[in-house]
Amino acid sequence: MHILLIRLRLVGDVVFTTPALRALRRRFPGARLAYLVEPGAAPVVLGNPHVDDVFIAPRSRGLRRIADDLRLAAALRRRRFDLVIDFHGGPRASWLAWASGAPRRIGYTIPGRSWMYTERVSRPRELRARHSVENQWDLLERLDVPSITPDSDPTEMSERQDSRRAVEARLTEAGVGPDDELVVIHVSAGNPFRRWPSESFAALAAGLASGSVRRRVVLTSGPSEPEAARRVADQARARVPEVADRIMRIGEFDLPELRALVGRAALFIGGDSGPLHIASTTTTPIVALFGPTLPERSAPWRPVHFVTECVEPGPLPCRPCDQRVCAPGDFRCLQHTSPERVLEAAERALRRGRLHLAPVPAIVQ
């Protein structure tokens, strides 16, 4: 059997499909599994031991997009897939599923596009307190794939040795030694609804840097906010000039390098965005910051004995939201989370990581 999986767009959403890859490999051990992904998230599945082939859909526009998609559709059709599973459901993904020519195509019931699938699964419109990984099993139930847990099937991303070596070289050049306690804070998010204020990140970085002479805080940011890490670093150093050398900005990291950096760290802190879910593929302790989204839906999907702390604002009448408009207008779900609460969660996660404790992940409200 030749199976194609489709998940376009966001890094975190692609990470959330990796447990399905392992489950499908168990269910169809002799199958050849292919994955169709866009360039930004391709490193998540490149090198995955359960994937045989990776197709990359270019992020082009206009007439170039049409030409690229026609070429891609022809390449998919030549592979003669027996089954396509569309985890995405967007217009491009559903068209490519149909254009593959596979005799069996499983996707969501979507107005105007359902005809592109041979089998359709209802997708509730409301925002449910159900994890995104579990939502995918609505599609996989058609294939008699048993349900999973974070312990049996965590998210995964292979670590590249060349990326690890590159990260180690950059850390050494920046003065981070093997015995230093490295804390990685990702200070940006592609979605403005998930961006904790830079002033809060600065206070958090300053507090962490002041906590130990061995501690080194590395700030990272993504392409959506290339200057965010520099801005936060400047603000944090101004708060505590005496430990300014412990707050570091050592350039940008691609996804494989970020995976290696977090794997080397004692703690990762970040909002509900792609880097958080890259971090979830490591054993590194995590503090996850939630605003309009829910931990029940987007918390790191990994074994409970890995240290994970989720900090959220608590119940609000407008939460969760569809992240199209802030109804109160003040982003209170992010503004109401104080740096002091996150710092407490971070210090707790660091202690638990050192002691190798195995409690159930905490939800901090």
Briefly summarize what is shown.
It contains 14 helices and 13 strands. It has 365 residues and is of the alpha/beta class. The N and C termini lie far apart (47 Å).
What characterizes the major β-sheet? 7 strands, parallel
CATH class of the largest domain: Alpha Beta
What is the overall shape?
Answer: globular
Approximately how much helix is present in the residues?
25-40%
- Termini separation comes to 47 Å
What does this structure look like?
The protein has 365 residues and is an alpha/beta fold. It has two domains: 2-143, Glycogen Phosphorylase B (Rossmann fold, 3-Layer(aba) Sandwich); 161-364, 3-Layer(aba) Sandwich (Rossmann fold), CATH 3.40.50.2000. Helices cover 36% and strands 16% of the residues. The protein has 14 helices and 13 strands. The protein has helices at residues 11-27, 42-45, 62-78, 91-99, 132-135, 137-140, 161-173, 198-209, 228-239, 255-264, 274-279, 295-298, 332-335, 339-355; strands at residues 2-6, 32-37, 53-56, 83-86, 104-108, 119-121, 181-186, 215-220, 247-248, 267-271, 286-289, 308-311, 362-364. The strands form two sheets. A seven-stranded parallel beta sheet has the order 9-8-7-10-11-12-13, with helices on both faces. The chain has a six-stranded parallel beta sheet with strand order 3-2-1-4-5-6, sandwiched between helices. Helix 7 crosses helix 10 (255-264). The longest helix has 17 residues, at 11-27. Mean pLDDT is 92; it is low at 358-363.
